[in-house]
Design brief:
By secondary structure, this protein is mainly alpha-helical. The protein is about 80% helix and about 0% strand. The chain is globular, with a radius of gyration of 18 Å.
Length: about 210
């Protein structure tokens, strides 16, 4: 297996998990508006540092349970539910985030960095999410639980999360001024991808029980 597959898999998984407007990306956008781009970047760096450890711990946990077919099947079922929810969200409910401009307030880079670590640490979703993703990828022979592959996958996850959070910082000002055609189509694209993954996972589940 080449390192490109786990790198791209981690990147795409992180991008899908980070794109929906949530605490981290919306806070990054607000910090950019209120305190400036540099402080927002420090916030993002703090956040992705924690995401690195969350993704790494999640994949190590997934490696432990990978030899348990019953647990793996349960995780596939959980993954099917998660990807189905993401598909419904992106295709029918996702909207462009809108915020009001506020006066910039100067704060230290250090406080933004630790705020990013704190909010990212309070978000426990990445751990079960990356467990499900890594086990699902492994079931399709797109991922192996070898240390170099794990680190490559985690690196891809960090790059994906950073890329999406940076996009919120860079383009949030444009998004709040007008409806962004590209973002609306990106929701459809991501919804289609998660829908296909959900269908593939459902097929795998049905094949396990009835195949």
């Amino acid at each position: 297996m080449t390192y490109l597959t786990p790198l791209l898999s981690g990147f795409i998984a992180a991008a899908i998990g980070t794109v929906p407007p949530g605490l981290l990306n919306m806070t990054a956008a607000k910090i950019k508006i209120k305190e400036g781009k540099k402080n927002a970047l420090w916030f993002v760096i703090g956040a992705v540092l924690v995401i690195f450890f969350q993704a790494y711990v999640a994949v190590l946990f997934a490696r432990v349970i990978d030899n348990r077919p019953d647990v793996v099947t349960l995780l596939r079922e959980v993954g099917f539910v998660i990807f189905s929810i993401l598909t419904i969200y992106f295709l029918f409910f996702a909207k462009d985030p809108i915020a009001k401009k506020k006066t910039k307030i100067k704060k230290s880079k250090k406080s933004s960095f630790f705020l990013g670590m704190l909010l990212s640490g309070l978000n426990f979703f990445p751990i079960p999410y990356y467990v499900v993703v890594s086990v699902t990828l492994a079931s399709y022979n797109l991922f192996t639980f070898q240390n170099p592959i794990i680190l490559t996958f985690v690196l891809g996850s960090v790059l994906g999360a950073f890329g999406i959070l940076y996009s919120y910082i860079a383009f949030f000002g444009r998004i709040e001024k007008k409806t962004d055609y590209f973002m609306r189509n990106m929701n459809t694209i991501i919804g289609t991808i998660t829908g296909l993954v959900a269908l593939a996972t459902l097929f795998n589940i049905l094949n396990y029980y009835f195949g």
